[in-house]
UniProtKB/TrEMBL annotation:
UniProt function note: This enzyme scavenges exogenous and endogenous cytidine and 2'-deoxycytidine for UMP synthesis.
The name this protein goes by in its record: Cytidine deaminase
Listed GO biological process terms: nucleobase-containing small molecule metabolic process; pyrimidine-containing compound metabolic process
Binding site for Zn(2+): C78, C111, C114
Stored Pfam families: dCMP_cyt_deam_1
Gene Ontology cellular component list: cytosol
PROSITE patterns: CYT_DCMP_DEAMINASES_2
Reaction catalyzed: cytidine + H2O + H(+) = uridine + NH4(+); 2'-deoxycytidine + H2O + H(+) = 2'-deoxyuridine + NH4(+)
Length: 165
């Protein structure tokens, strides 16, 4: 498992990460800038902790999101789930990469709830790029962020629930 901090301004870091995770450098820089810019759309009057997310669909589209908080604190929603909600309700089901950006350093990772939410829609090999305030980043596969995960394929087919006997 790699938690090496890389630099988005270092093209050797970027090109190596892109080769490893099968995206183009153009897609990488788009994911970085879009997740960073999405922070500006956050509604976070309580934490003041802005998070932006951008998702790359398999057919090359980007869907962005940001965190949306609530006066009843636990009701607030993270940037990743906002972005995936938009993507899924727009009909997207296959994704190539995920990016999240915050105003802190080192890079922050998706919370546990978001890791599970992402797991519903992404292959375990899907890369998650995590950017800090200065563009440094860590990238890990979903499988590394959520080992031994539970996904839709674990459920029995509808109508075939095991008997209680
Ligand atoms: Zn989250």
């Amino acid at each position: 498992m790699s938690t090496t901090i890389l630099q988005s301004a270092d093209e050797s870091h970027v090109s190596k990460a892109c080769q490893t995770y099968s995206i183009t450098t153009t897609q990488f820089h788009a994911l970085h800038s879009r997740s960073r810019d999405a922070k500006a759309t956050a509604y976070c009057p309580y934490s003041q902790f802005r998070v932006g997310a951008s998702i790359l669909t398999e057919d090359g589209q980007y869907i962005d999101g940001a965190n949306v908080e609530n006066a009843s604190y636990p009701v607030g929603t993270c940037a990743e789930r906002v972005a995936f909600g938009k993507a899924v309700t727009d009909g997207h089901r296959k994704f190539s990469a995920i990016a999240v950006a915050t105003d802190i350093s080192p890079p922050a990772s998706p919370c546990g709830m978001c890791r599970q939410f992402i797991r519903e829609f992404c292959e375990l090999s899907t890369p998650v790029f995590m950017f800090d305030k200065d563009g440094a980043f860590v990238v890990m596969k979903l499988e590394q962020l959520l080992p031994l995960s539970f996904g839709p394929e674990a459920l029995p087919p509808l109508g075939e629930l095991p008997s209680k006997a």
